[in-house]
């Protein structure tokens, strides 16, 4: 079998180019922070990024100036507040946006995954959203005459996702909350996956139901333990809610945010440094948290 | 137990009043915050048969700690099922989920909700988080209950942007034409309950210990008087403090 | 919570009526033989039945004279041969058919599951099948002008499926081959599930990823161990290939088939009798077979 | 090792010749029987990188015992992934699966395949199993290889029913118009290999130990002579007996 293991630098360098449309996985759970930060470290720019509900990872990418366009259903810091970098960029017109809803983004990815141009849907026919999506069209059911919105497909060039484990051939296993992660990955031309650990193919075959992307669809696997921090990984570590809360206040201020990005992205250019930066004590406490390795609840 | 409802915090009051509206439903599409807390409270008391559905794909959770994201550990942990968002939204569009709970930054007389921008879309005063699943739920769910803290700035003649479409004269005909849900039918604030009519919200009833004037204060819609009182179920009252997010 | 447990008789009696359209689950794996046989025992007739790939359970239903219409992508006895009862009924015009392909049947169910009238697809535009599906229509993409077939939704009144386990509230857990079983169930108005065993809700919550239908969608749960015989249940018992092979020869002859149906359906009116009929020795051997409880391979 | 290929049974000959065609592919949509056996043989020998995809949703299996159904225990057991049929067919339609293998009851000069009826559709002499996934694969897969036992009754001028559309003059233009795969390009029998041209199948090469007359016997299409010989890969030859279904 072809081995898909790669170091982080090459996986991104070889598979992501300026102007690409990138789907970024993670729905509260399994957000590929460290993998995606590599786009910032390699300064690959003019990127379009998409997903349904986007959180502070999108904010960080926008703040880094490498994003041309955001395609989204929600963008913010869940429960905590707004995406301040997005809001600044929106205000100063330094990014393009394409604003949908969570369901419509997922259906756009679903259409691409199915290999068709569009899917009919009942949403996006009333309210102010439809008229702000200038290219959205209608479609009439040839059976009933029912009028639908035609949700156009969205086919990303690359998907960046994080999962629990994979073998070296690229069989990727994930459990817990998925959201639109698998949908977005399967819609994409290339799929790059960071994982908490590499396992043997024998272990994959013991629970094939856990495999969510087949090996032949996967471009590269990168082993990045703690790569989803400050989000979480079911069975490994819990979510660092406090990190999200702090991010809200610091990201209101551009120079504070620059310092944060230096500290948490630019200067931590290997995963061991990232783990060090998180801190031993904090890691232990997150392993003991809900869904962590040491969770006893 | 005699309680002065004025001494209970506003979020809890909303959750208590709204929980009583969930009686008889079997499945509820909820977001994080008061909607999720309300559904948990109902499930823990008057409607144990209701199944909580989060757009992250988790079903059947009863979060014991505060959740920040619909995909948080507390939502996944000890749920009955974890499927994907596609599946949940498909069930929503197919009319397979009974009732939804939504909140927003602004609401108007027809229950139109705004979570997109304050001011104009191109050049807003405040840019907010956008629809998320709110537009989708507002369009598709058969029964929709709106939860709003009684902050007069949130109640407006006309929302700045219709993220999640309302009902009444505004959209009733189009809702039938497009086979959508019937739109918001109930609005719960921390002081009162309103019900939708073709001409917009009517005041239905007022929480004990609050006056009519308090219930409608700062709300710009014409509202007739109601003497109906909301009595909180005793079981709900005794359990509201145990709900994690409240 | 509402308890969904039911005895077999009531689950079918209360939820299936003459003229219903029924989706029958099982794709090689988990075919709901015993649950579906109850339709024959209760003589509920004028039924329409549908699924993508149909095997000898469809043949038995047709032979029993309770079927008005078959909607299918494939009908036969996999690898072994044809569906002889289907072929007789087709020859003598005693059933209606609606012949699709496996993919189009699955997309029809998928459209119903999504709550829309139709899904665009590239298939069924060339060859002789499209012209024999008289009501199939075309749809043009409003974005690209691409011409697609419009695959109409198919929404069954009832789904009959078999799974490994469920709790009394109706949370259904399944693993191994799914095929179109879950898709068909989620497309249906009512869902009746037979399971190998009832488990505690606590156990459901330990592996929520295994749950494939949420409790509020399920109409009734019926405990029917060995209910999928002669097909198989991963983790319980293997497939009785020999039963399928024997069925091929006996079902060529109508009176032999009548004897078979008396023996295997009419006279085994409780699941203990069915288990007895399978035989202790055969059951042990199937438990030792591939995917069985005692499989040590 | 000098082998007389006439002494090897026909199914094994098909599998061996066809396996050599799978070199370089990464994913293969297979059905039960010779297609599955062929792909297993290729994976076990000249193309270890090929992933076997069954329409039941199982991926990566290498069945060790004879399988009767695409959903059989041997297909699920020790596979790398079990997804659902929807997912597999979606990947197929999206052009994400490289190559497919099909067989049928009848084939004609343009590679049209029939697995539906012998005789007329309404009143057939023999009613067969229908398309299953065959029509879908024939329409959508980028590269299609047909496997047929050399039984002259199977080779006809025009199939009685086009279940799975072919290519050549018959469908090439429509295939482009509808964004379909390019249709069958290779036909393997137990004696020879044929390749598709706009005017239909051409004889490409003949298995060692067989004559031209044997390779085209009973085939009603005009076929020019070919002196090219098929040499079976030694690894394939040595492992063909170990494939379960053969």
In short:
The complex is a heterotetramer, with 2 copies of chain A (297 residues) and 2 copies of chain B (246 residues). Chain A has helices at 8-15, 33-41, 56-63, 84-91, 102-114, 129-132, 181-187, 201-206, 241-250, 254-266, 271-278, 280-288, and strands at 21-24, 47-54, 67-77, 81-82, 96-99, 118-121, 137-140, 147-152, 158-166, 172-173, 190-198, 211-213, 220-223.
Characterise the protein shown here.
The complex is a heterotetramer, with two copies of chain A (297 residues) and two copies of chain B (246 residues). Chain A is an alpha/beta fold. Chain A has helices spanning 8-15, 33-41, 56-63, 84-91, 102-114, 129-132, 181-187, 201-206, 241-250, 254-266, 271-278, 280-288, and strands at 21-24, 47-54, 67-77, 81-82, 96-99, 118-121, 137-140, 147-152, 158-166, 172-173, 190-198, 211-213, 220-223. Among the domains of chain A are: 8-45 and 157-288, Glutaconate Coenzyme A-transferase, CATH 3.40.1080.10; 118-152, no CATH class. In chain A, β1, α2 (33-41) and β2 (47-54) form a beta-alpha-beta unit. In chain A, α5 packs across α7 (181-187). In chain B, β11 (184-188) and β12 (192-197) form a beta hairpin. In chain B, strands 2-1-5-10-11-12-13-14 form an eight-stranded mixed beta sheet, with helices on both faces. In chain B, strands 3-4 form a two-stranded antiparallel ribbon. Chain B has a two-stranded antiparallel sheet with strand order 6-7. Chain B has helices at 10-20, 34-44, 73-76, 85-93, 134-140, 172-177, 212-216, 234-239, and strands at residues 27-30, 51-54, 58-59, 81-82, 99-102, 106-107, 113-114, 117-119, 124-127, 143-147, 184-188, 192-197, 200-207, 229-230. Chains in contact: A-B, A-C, A-D, B-C, C-D. Chains A and B meet through β3, α4 and α5 of A and α3, α4, α5 and α6 of B.
Structural class computed from helices and strand pairing of chain A: alpha/beta
Stretches of chain A where pLDDT is under 50 for at least 5 consecutive residues are none
- How many angstroms does the end-to-end distance of chain A come to? 40 Å
Secondary-structure element sequence of chain A? HEHEHEEHEHEHEEEEHEHEEHHHH
Low-confidence stretches of chain B: none
């Amino acid at each position: 079998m072809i081995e898909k293991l790669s170091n982080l630098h090459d996986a991104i360098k070889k598979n992501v180019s300026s102007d690409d449309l990138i789907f970024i996985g993670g729905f509260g759970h399994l957000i590929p922070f460290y993998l995606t930060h590599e786009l910032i470290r390699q300064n690959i720019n003019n990127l379009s990024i998409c997903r349904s509900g986007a959180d502070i990872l999108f904010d960080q990418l926008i703040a880094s100036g490498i994003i041309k366009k955001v395609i989204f259903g929600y963008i913010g810091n869940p429960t905590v507040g707004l995406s301040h970098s997005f809001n600044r960029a929106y205000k100063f017109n330094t990014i393009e946006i394409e604003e949908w809803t969570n369901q419509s983004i997922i259906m756009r990815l679903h259409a691409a995954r199915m290999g068709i141009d569009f899917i009919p849907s009942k949403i996006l026919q009333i309210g102010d959203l439809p008229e702000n999506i200038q290219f959205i069209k209608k479609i009439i059911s040839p059976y009933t005459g029912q009028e639908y919105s035609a949700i156009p497909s969205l086919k990303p060039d690359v998907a960046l996702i994080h999962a629990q484990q994979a073998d070296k051939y690229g069989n990727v296993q994930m459990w817990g909350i998925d959201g639109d992660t698998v949908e977005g990955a399967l819609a994409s031309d290339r799929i790059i996956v960071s994982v908490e650990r590499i396992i043997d193919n024998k272990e994959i075959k013991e629970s094939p139901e856990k495999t969510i992307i087949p090996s032949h669809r996967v471009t590269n696997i990168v082993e990045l333990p703690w790569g989803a921090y400050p989000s979480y990984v079911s069975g490994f570590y819990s979510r660092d809610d406090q990190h999200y809360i702090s991010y809200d206040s610091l990201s209101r201020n551009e120079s504070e945010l620059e310092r944060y990005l230096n500290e948490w992205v630019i200067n931590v250019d290997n995963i061991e440094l990232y783990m060090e930066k998180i801190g031993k004590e904090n890691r232990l406490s997150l392993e003991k948290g809900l869904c962590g390795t040491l969770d006893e609840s | 137990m005699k309680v002065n409802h004025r001494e209970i915090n506003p979020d809890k009051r909303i959750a208590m009043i709204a929980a009583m509206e969930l009686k008889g439903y079997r499945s509820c599409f909820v977001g994080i915050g008061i909607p999720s807390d309300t559904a948990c409270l109902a499930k823990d008391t008057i409607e144990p048969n209701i199944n909580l559905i989060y757009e992250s794909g988790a079903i059947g959770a009863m979060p014991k700690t505060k959740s920040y994201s619909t995909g948080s550990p507390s939502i996944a942990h000890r749920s009955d099922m974890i499927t994907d968002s596609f599946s949940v939204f498909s069930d929503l569009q197919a009319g397979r989920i009974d009732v939804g709970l939504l909140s927003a930054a602004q609401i108007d007389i027809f229950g139109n909700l705004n979570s997109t921008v304050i001011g104009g879309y191109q050049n807003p005063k405040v840019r907010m988080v956008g629809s998320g699943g709110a537009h989708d739920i507002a369009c598709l769910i058969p029964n929709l209950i709106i939860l709003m803290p009684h902050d007069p700035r949130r109640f407006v003649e006309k929302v700045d942007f219709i993220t999640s479409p309302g009902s009444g004269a505004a959209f009733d005909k189009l809702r039938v034409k497009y086979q959508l849900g019937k739109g918001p039918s109930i609005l719960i604030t921390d002081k009162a309950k309103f019900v939708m009519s073709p001409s917009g919200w009517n005041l239905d009833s007022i929480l004990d210990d609050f006056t009519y004037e308090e219930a409608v204060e700062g709300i710009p819609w014409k509202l007739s008087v109601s003497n109906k009182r909301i009595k909180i179920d005793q079981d709900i009252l005794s359990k509201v403090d145990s709900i994690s997010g409240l």
